[in-house]
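Cross-posting from the chemistry board since nobody answered there.

I work mostly on the small-molecule side, so proteins are not my area. We synthesized magnesium ion and want a rough idea of how it might sit in this target. Sequence and SMILES are below. Is it possible to get a predicted 3D structure of the two together?
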Amino acid sequence: MFRFIFNRILQSVVVIFIVVTITFFMVRLAPGDPFSSERRIPDYIQQRILEHYGLDRPAVEQYWRYLQGAAPKRFRPDKLFTEDPLLNAFGIDLGPSYTSARTVNQIIAETFPVSFELGAWALLIAILFGVSAGMTASVFRNTALDYVPMSVAMAGICLPTFVMGPILALIFGVWLGWFNVSGWFVPADRVLPAVTLGLVYAAVIARITRGGMLEILSQDFIRTAQAKGVPYGKIIFKHTLRGGLLPVVTYMGPALAGVISGSFVVETIFQIPGLGRQFVQSAFNRDYFLVLGTVSVYAVLITLANLTVDIVQVILNPRLRFED
Amino acid sequence: MPPLLEVRDLTTYFHTRNGVVRAVDGVSFSLNRGETLGIVGESGSGKSVTCYSMLGLIPMPPGRIEKGSAVFDGATDLLDCPPKVLQSIRGKRISMIFQDPMTSLNPYLRVSTQIMEPLFLHEKGIGKKEALERAIQSLREVGITEPERRVHFYPHEFSGGMRQRVMIAMAMITHPELLIADEPSTALDVTVQAQILELIKERQRANNSAVILITHDLGVVAGMCDRINVMYAGKIVESGTADDIFKRAAHPYTIALKRSIPSLGTKGKPLYTIPGMPPDLSQLIPGDAFALRKGIRSGGKYDHTPPPMVQVSDTHWVRDSDCELPSLEEVLDEC
Ligand SMILES: Nc1ncnc2c1ncn2[C@@H]1O[C@H](COP(=O)(O)OP(=O)(O)OP(=O)(O)O)[C@@H](O)[C@H]1O
Ligand SMILES: [Mg+2]
């Protein structure tokens, strides 16, 4: 078990390294540089700017310097809640932002909590609605309680976020006036973006849950439980749920990745000051270090999520515990 | 004293897209306390469905119990009683073990959890500690070594034969009055088969339980059963004591089954096989189902009317039939 976790962490580090490397050279392949889109500036000033940021150096040298700055150098859990936790707690310096007076570290420290909160609400909605709808559908298979939620889920899967978002904003923001159409100020501002982001995944999770539950309910050991006199509720919650939810756990990795990329769209639609919006803007601005910084955060997040999923799976499924 | 179980005219159909499958069609038998009843027949003859019907384990839909009764202990009709009552009987007074021990235990739960479950369900107020002790005890009784340690294992940590032992321990932990064993040894290898059957016999004696033993192997029931029901196409074709069936078999199907037991044939001679295939149960069969079998000659007496049960002796009934088995040479020629 511990060897398994250790191996997976090692793999994750390699994956993150590869992602950073590819991103580093890819952004540089895109035409233009951070300062070329600005108004014309005299060449000698342009030269000074490039020198200041080290952009006049060969790409490989820049890459090496970036890695040196970005590599974690220490771990001080007590400094996790300071102004710049990346630098203070881990010794990570993701470099300056070309379009802002702040460093990439500071921008991430400021915007990441917003995105994290949005993603957490969205996933919570997805899991709560998805699992309960899927379970209901499987328990009441081939009745209205199965057909209705599953049709809604199918519709939810088909509607992309950038359609769903404006529709919800129109209905609940403009017509009904229950929520603000955009912004991130009062607690109620969380509702529309989180629902927009979570609905698609709720729909997918509902379908996966239903399938997983039905699969387990058709197994021989359910008949054994019935023959023992186990009441129906216990058959569902004690004998079926664990195995039935395994596919959902597996899906949480891709779901998290999806919520992250969905947040680019949702944060833009609802004007939320999160990391996703920074990411989109930084790409347009050729803000190399900011692109790299946000990509790294996402890479770490997704690998962490997949690692957690793998571990939870092993815990839920005893048969996996002995395979290596 | 009333019989422990009295089944009358049990009829279970499956209403599928391809028509009505008449899986069990008017089965009647009775069983006394402590007695062992064997149910024998080819695959698909309705042995399992007969027993699942009694415990409410038939998937509905597509299954439906059309008519009949199964009175348990002279008081409760298992086919027509409130779900709560049936639940309190299942796993407490009637236990069941299944054909495939690899899939019949829940792979996600520890063996301890599963073995103790009937105790928590049926013996209200039993403590965790006592339940665990009983679980360990019942594992010891089925011959599992180091039960204190292995009770906490997951099913996949046991071999097939060991899992069937666990199933037996789980079924017997509440000292049921009736144990239904649905082909308990079919999925196991030959050496383990005999051990499992021996174990069932032994646990039966210790608890003074009645047993219904389902099998498609007449050889298995020979040494174990007081009474034997032979089933064909959802109906009982012959019913009698072990002696009636083995010494005085009257129905051609029973005779064919007997002739196909390897150990009863003469050494060196090719083994008899029953020609043809069992009938398709989704077609209505108005007469003698055995007469429809390819390679069986019949005089046509029961082409359109169902053959009646005829009493041969006090203990022996047989379904009337004018079918004639082909000889061994004819069967071999067919191949
Ligand atoms: N869920 C179901 N839906 C439709 N038909 C079924 C279903 N379960 C059983 N049957 C049919 O009922 C008939 C009897 O099946 P049953 O399982 O009782 O046979 P069996 O005698 O136990 O055979 P085996 O030795 O293979 O276990 C078969 O023809 C089978 O196709
Ligand atoms: Mg069967």
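Reply from a structural biologist on the board:
Welcome over. Reading the output above for you: The domain at 112-275 of chain A is CATH 1.10.3720.10 (MetI-like fold). The radius of gyration of chain A is 24 Å. Happy to explain the token format if needed.
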